[in-house]
Amino acid sequence: MCDLTYEFVSAMVEGRDAVPGFDYGASAQAMADAVLDSFERKTWVNIQAGLN
Fold first, then answer.
1. Would you state the pLDDT for residue 50?
2. pTM of the full predicted structure?
3. Furthest-apart CA pair in the chain: how many Å?
């Protein structure tokens, strides 16, 4: 967790985008939600294109 905090603060100080960024987190959350949905419904679940 300290590495992520350091990266976030460094990016703010240096005026650049943090890596990983919000888009990466949103994609990871969409994937996690799809896994839970697939497990609950016991079938494959499609994920929206463009979440990478």
1. 62
2. 0.62
3. 46
